[in-house]
Amino acid sequence: MMTKINTSAYMPTNLDVVNAGENKIRISAYPFESGFGITLAHPLRRLLYSSTVGFAPTSVKIEGVTHEFDSMRGMFEDVAHFIINLKSIRFKIKDSSVPKVTANYSFKGSKEIVGADLANNELDIVTPEIHLASINEDAELNFTVVIEKGIGYVPSEIIREQANDGFIALDAFFTPVKKAIYDIENILVEDNPDYEKVIFTIETDGQISPTDAFKHSLKAMYSQMSVFNNILEMDLSNQDIGGIDSKFASLLQNISDLNLSVRSFNSLDKAQIKYVAEIALLSDYELKELKNLGKKSFEEIKAVMEDIGFPVGSIPAETAEILRKKVSELRANKE
Questions:
Q1: How far is CA 184 from the centre of its chain?
Q2: What is residue 23's DSSP assignment?
């Protein structure tokens, strides 16, 4: 039988999502061309761990305690052990728009304190059974915990730089993803056994559902790749770009790629300037006369254009007309 020669990659069409336990799912997608499975699965796995938003205690202040190697009268655990237990408790800020919550706690008398005892109007505890400390009948334990929203892992050395006086900085393990693994199996498609099936197993600690964690990792991947979107609007041959020498390719980028200050960007945006070429085609006088463009913004834009090698007003006449035509085409395609 004659081997079929493909002109484009096979598009996977099947997606299965199965509940595999508490806060655990299994996602299968197939069929992928040979080699495409790992190409997609590996970065998604990394993003699941590194980009999924979670909550963690970042610092704690304990009344009567000066450092993490101290001890406290009436508490069975020393402070170091108390901190280890505290970092094991998984908090969740109820209002997702709030980046930080400072919670005060006070306990007296004989008591075993567990995660559930730390829930309040602003915080949920997704690990209510975890032990924090045991105090005797004569003890009084007063402490304040700062809970923050973040991604990944942040060491205490960094948190210490912004911690309030008297607070002990903690290593912050924000990621709510406990497990993210993938398997790749071969699957038969039209008598070809080399197609692939990707199977993700994702488990979270309850701060977020595994389905939402996977959605967030997909969004993170798309947003990271969006930096290349302008290439889709360009003809990046080794010759010319729509009649423009390839060295002028950067002029066809959006002005957002210049990383200007908000004030400068807004001034250009209000002037209906969308592409870098439109700035380069202006004279100094035309740029300075733009409405609401102050002196600092004028100087910033000039400096940025010089840095990228296209000072304001420097485009040769023979190239200027081609650039104007190309910008018009880009604008027309956007509409």
A1: 26
A2: T
Please list the helix, strand and coil fractions of the chain in percent, rounded to the nearest 5, in that order.
35, 30, 35
**159-188 per-position pLDDT tens digit:** 998 888 889 999 999 999 999 999 999 998
Q: Where are the domains of the chain?
A: 14-52+177-227, 53-173, 234-334
234-334: CATH topology:
DNA polymerase; domain 1 (1.10.150)
- Average pLDDT estimate for 145-160: 93
CA dist 134 and 80 (Å) reads: 14
pLDDT recorded at residue 238: 43
How high is the pLDDT of residue 291? 83
pLDDT (0 to 100) of residue 155: 93
* Both structure tokens of 335: 């509409």
Instruction: Write down the mean pLDDT value for the chain.
Output: 88
- 14-52+177-227: CATH superfamily: RNA polymerase, RBP11-like subunit (3.30.1360.10)
Task: Look at residues 334, 325, 311 and name the one whose alpha carbon lies nearest to residue 240.
Answer: 325
User: Alpha-carbon distance 268 to 294, whole Å?
Assistant: 11
Other CB atoms within 10 A of residue 308 CB: 14
DSSP label at 327? H
Q: How many angstroms separate the Cα of 193 from the Cα of each of 11, 31, 32, 35, 186? A: 16, 10, 11, 13, 6
- Of residues 303 and 1, the one with the higher pLDDT is 303
- Which residues in 246-258 are b (16+ Cβ under 10 Å) and which e? eebbbbbbebeeb
Stated as kind and residue range, the H or E segment containing 244 is strand 244-245
Q: Which of 251, 252, 254, 249 is nearest to 265 (CA)?
A: 254
Q: What does the pLDDT read at residue 153?
A: 92
**What is the pLDDT, as a whole number, of residue 8?**
75
Q: Concatenated DSSP letters for 114-157? A: EGGGG--SSEEES-TT-EEEEE-TT-EEEEEEEEEEEESEE-HH
Which architecture, in CATH terms, is 53-173?
Answer: Beta Complex (2.170)
